[in-house]
Design brief:
The complex is a heterodimer of chains A (313) and B (256).
Chain A (H helix, E strand, L loop, with lengths): L7 E12 L2 E12 L3 E5 L6 H8 L7 E6 L2 E2 L4 H5 L2 E4 L11 H11 L4 H14 L15 H13 L5 E5 L7 H17 L1 E5 L3 H7 L2 E6 L2 E7 H8 L3 E6 L5 H6 L3 E6 L4 E6 L6 H10 L4 E6 L4 H10 L4
Parallel strand pairs in A: 3-8, 3-9, 6-7, 7-8
Antiparallel strand pairs in A: 1-2, 1-4, 4-5, 9-10, 11-13, 11-14, 12-13
Chain B lengths: L1 H14 L1 H34 L6 H34 L3 H6 L4 H29 L8 H26 L5 H28 L3 H9 L2 H9 L5 H27 L2
Helix pairs in contact in B: 1-5, 2-3, 2-5, 3-5, 3-6, 3-7, 3-9, 5-6, 5-10, 6-7, 6-9, 6-10, 7-8, 9-10
The chains are: A alpha/beta (313), B mainly alpha (256).
Chain lengths: 313, 256
């Protein structure tokens, strides 16, 4: 477990999938280590779900390989699936079972020994906050609880790799926070692959991001790397009595000014310059009425929009 | 792992009203037929006794009973099998099984076994009726064993066909129709086509029709004859449709 390769839990190489003439996923590479959370992003139809189906052995790839904890998915699917927990887009729930019965079945299906099954189910119920509904029929639960049962099903056997396809869809804000905390907790000991449309979710939860577009990977970096490469290039400036945009642009070191609202501006800095001091001084001297000043982090959203819109076919 | 799936299916069956309805109707129909045949037998008994080698209670009453069960199964098996795969498709729960460390063969065999256990239970409950005759007479246990073996093979054949039909669609009702249609065609082929094909000298086609007609292959068992050819035909039918189902599910993983 100490060698560097042993810690690689998911390894996909040149993964492709065609549906007829359409390339749903094209030569995708993906690598994940223990304790890492990877966010898989992309517009609808980018191939995220297809990728996850291939990673979990639900769909056979047209090309490329998937290795889970060093076990090839095509050659030894049963052994590879032992290390996997998967929550698909639509949680696979048996409505006629109670939550506890269902999780017990999930544990059985994952070959958990009889003696360990009860504690495993209890732990999953606890972690996903299902204690109050454990004896109820799944069909009678709200969407949020059903989603949580789906997550519980994916983690009941403590798999090395947890793959979650849009885990926070249909949850209320409190539940979303709980699930995010749960995912972060999972990420400490397991590897998590997560797909979502909610970009702040990725920024708060994930260690790495991979953006897909038309089946291709268009961006792959760590969140820290993303922040570093885009931070410090501008500020967000709020002014109660703003001057005309050209006045702001005339301040030395300002490369661009974008009015986000009548009172809030995004000021882009010229390379190597930092006109923050100058802006503050002018604001005081000219009575612009400074209300906010914050580093304008290029958000993941901007990267996302930039990468997935400019290349639209 | 096959048993985990079988237990799950058995549980799901008992959770649905369909299984209870089928169970009830089977008992009602068979029970009615049973009483009527006993009545007939009692009326005929004085005349039968005068025959040098009279047909016994088992052949007169019990054997037709199992033939009735065979017909009921023709309807019931596709109805009970329809949801096995189609419903998992429709509710997208198949993913749970496909993502678990199970082979597709285990999934298919588990589902097959689950429904078989249910039908065996039905047959066992029904068998209490002939056993009740032991209070007032004696049974030919050899014939009874032959009937039980035959009906089990017949049920397994029907379930295999129903399971395959269920793997073809995501609509349980459509699956039931396909399954029932297949079984009906097979029954018709067995009753008529096999003989006329043989008369024309098309033996290969006649042999195929024979394999594909489970009811025809049940007949020797109902006479207390263990015909290994008929048994082999039924086994072949079961295996062929189970393999077809496995291949069908595997194609869903490969295709798209």
């Amino acid at each position: 477990m100490t060698s560097p390769t042993a810690d690689i839990t998911v390894h996909a190489q040149g993964l492709s999938r065609d549906f007829g003439a359409r390339h749903a996923v094209n030569a995708l590479n993906l690598e994940l280590r223990r304790g890492e959370i990877l966010g898989l992003l992309g517009p609808n139809g980018a191939g995220k779900t297809t990728t996850m189906q291939m990673l979990t052995g639900n769909l056979a790839p047209s090309g490329g390989t998937v290795t889970i904890c060093g076990i090839d998915m095509t050659e030894r699917p049963t052994a590879a699936k032992m290390h996997l927990g998967y929550l698909p887009e639509h949680p696979p729930l048996y409505r006629e079972l109670t939550v506890r019965e269902y999780l017990d079945l999930a544990a059985r299906l994952h070959r958990i020994a009889k003696t360990r099954r009860r504690p495993a189910v209890a732990a999953a119920i606890e972690r996903c906050g299902l204690a109050s509904v454990a004896a109820r029929l799944i069909g009678a639960l709200s969407k949020g609880y059903q989603q949580r049962v789906g997550i519980a099903q994916a983690i009941v056997h403590a798999p090395d790799v947890v793959i979650l396809d849009e885990p926070t869809v249909g949850l209320d804000p409190n539940q979303i926070r709980e699930i995010r905390n749960l995912i972060r907790e999972l990420g400490q000991h397991h590897s998590v692959v997560l797909s979502t449309h909610i970009l702040p979710e990725v920024e708060t939860v994930c260690d790495r991001v991979q953006i897909m577009h038309h089946g291709n990977t268009v961006f792959s970096d760590t969140i820290a790397g993303l922040r570093q490469s885009h931070a410090g290039r501008g500020v967000r400036l709020g002014l109660r009595r703003p001057p005309a945009v050209p006045t702001l642009a005339a301040v030395a070191g300002v490369a661009e000014v974008e009015a986000l609202s009548p009172n809030v501006f995004r000021i882009g800095f010229a390379d190597g310059a930092d006109p923050t001091d100058a802006l503050v001084r002018r604001a005081v001297e000219d009575g612009w009425g400074l209300t906010q000043l914050a580093p304008a982090q290029t958000s993941l959203e901007e990267v996302f929009v930039h990468l997935t819109q400019t290349e639209t076919a | 792992m096959i048993f985990v799936i079988a237990a799950k299916e058995l549980k799901a069956l008992f959770a649905s009203p369909l299984a209870w309805i089928v169970l009830t109707l089977t008992q009602l129909i068979v029970g009615y037929g049973f009483l009527q045949r006993i009545d007939d037998f009692i009326q005929l008994q004085p005349q039968l006794i005068q025959l040098p080698n009279p047909p016994g209670l088992t052949l007169q009453v019990v054997a037709p009973l199992y033939a009735t069960v065979g017909i009921i199964l023709l309807f019931a098996a596709p109805l009970l099998a329809m949801r096995l795969i189609a419903e998992e498709r429709r509710h997208q729960t198949m993913v749970l099984l496909m993502s678990a460390p199970l082979s597709i063969s285990e999934i298919v065999l588990g589902k097959f076994l689950g429904l078989m256990l249910f039908l065996l239970l039905t047959i066992a409950i029904m068998t209490l009726m002939p056993l009740a005759l032991l209070f007032g007479g004696h049974l030919d246990f050899g014939l009874l064993a032959s009937l039980l073996l035959g009906i089990t093979l017949l049920a397994a054949g029907f379930v295999a066909v129903g399971l395959y039909a269920s793997s073809l669609t995501a609509q349980p009702i459509v699956a039931a129709l396909i399954g029932f249609g297949l079984l009906l065609v097979m029954a018709l082929v067995g009753e008529t086509a096999a003989d006329s094909l043989r008369d024309r000298g098309w033996t290969a086609a006649a042999d195929l029709a024979r394999v594909l007609s489970p009811l025809k292959n049940f007949d020797p068992f109902a006479r207390g004859v263990f015909d290994s050819y008929s048994a082999a035909c039924l086994l072949l039918l079961i295996i062929v449709f189970l393999v077809l189902t496995i291949r069908r599910l595997d194609a869903a993983r490969l295709g798209g």
